[in-house]
């Protein structure tokens, strides 16, 4: 399948932050290995002057998702720390819109659409299709993809630019099946043509 980009398309890079990469506080195994693939998508969209959005966890210090405060995760992506920064090798364009999520200590968010302005921003600029990759397949990528579909966007899952946590073996495969069953379309960089 070949897809030609149009001015109705946007790229969404999900949570490619230092804490989710090797040696980070909540590392996705081999999470940094998707950075070169994402950079190819970023170059493709940026050269076509198409919008790029990057989501990030931006937690307060005492966040509900942390074990100490009733959650299941170690402290991670605490705002204004090195762990919350985007991976240093990720070539986000200056024009990228940054979407901060889970910013309230009493609520968590696995989706880039949850309690953010992402949907409104996409609709306002006439976006019809979104292309989504990042970390982690079985959590924030999955939930962002499902919310994109619920929001009415044609949604492409960047199959060559995602990595999962797999706390339970097979979680990532099940997440991919769930996204595709919900209507997402799996795609790789060689199936996308320039605007």
Topology:
Elements: E1 3-4, E2 9-14, H1 35-47, E3 52-57, E4 97-101, H2 118-124, E5 129-135, H3 137-150, E6 154-163, H4 171-182, E7 185-187, E8 192-193
Helix pairs in contact: 3-4
Describe this structure in words.
The protein is an alpha/beta fold and 195 residues long. It has a single domain (3-193), classed as 3-Layer(aba) Sandwich (Rossmann fold), CATH 3.40.50.850. It is 24% helix and 21% strand. The protein has helices at 35-47, 118-124, 137-150, 171-182; strands at residues 3-4, 9-14, 52-57, 97-101, 129-135, 154-163, 185-187, 192-193. Helix 3 (137-150) runs parallel beside helix 4. The model has no long low-confidence stretch (mean pLDDT 97).
Quick synopsis:
By secondary structure, this protein is α/β, with parallel strands linked by helices. The protein has four helices and eight strands.
Helix content: 10-25%
**Elements, N to C (H/E):** EEHEEHEHEHEE
Can you tell me the residue ranges where pLDDT is under 50 for at least 5 consecutive residues? none
Report the top-level CATH class.
Answer: Alpha Beta
In the CATH hierarchy, the architecture is 3-Layer(aba) Sandwich
CATH fold name: Rossmann fold
Strand content: 15-25%
Keywords:
single chain, 195 residues, alpha/beta, Rossmann fold, two-stranded parallel ribbon, 4 helices
């Amino acid at each position: 399948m070949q897809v030609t980009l149009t001015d109705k398309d946007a790229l969404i890079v999900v949570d490619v932050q230092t804490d989710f990469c090797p040696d980070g506080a909540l590392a996705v195994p081999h999470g940094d290995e998707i950075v070169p693939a994402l950079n190819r998508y970023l170059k493709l969209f940026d050269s076509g002057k198409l919008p790029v959005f990057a989501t990030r966890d931006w937690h307060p210090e005492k966040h509900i998702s942390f074990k100490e405060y009733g959650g299941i995760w170690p402290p991670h992506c605490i705002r204004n720390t090195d762990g919350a920064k985007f991976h240093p090798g990720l070539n986000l364009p200056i024009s990228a819109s940054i979407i901060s999520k889970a910013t309230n200590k009493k609520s968590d968010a696995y989706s880039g659409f949850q309690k953010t302005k992402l949907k409104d921003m996409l609709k306002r600029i006439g976006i019809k299709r979104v292309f989504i990759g990042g970390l982690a397949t079985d959590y924030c990528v999955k939930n962002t993809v499902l919310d994109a579909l619920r929001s009415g966007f044609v949604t492409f899952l960047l199959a060559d630019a995602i990595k999962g946590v797999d706390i339970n073996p097979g979680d990532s495969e099940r997440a991919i099946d769930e996204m595709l069953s919900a209507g997402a379309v799996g795609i790789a960089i060689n199936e996308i043509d320039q605007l």
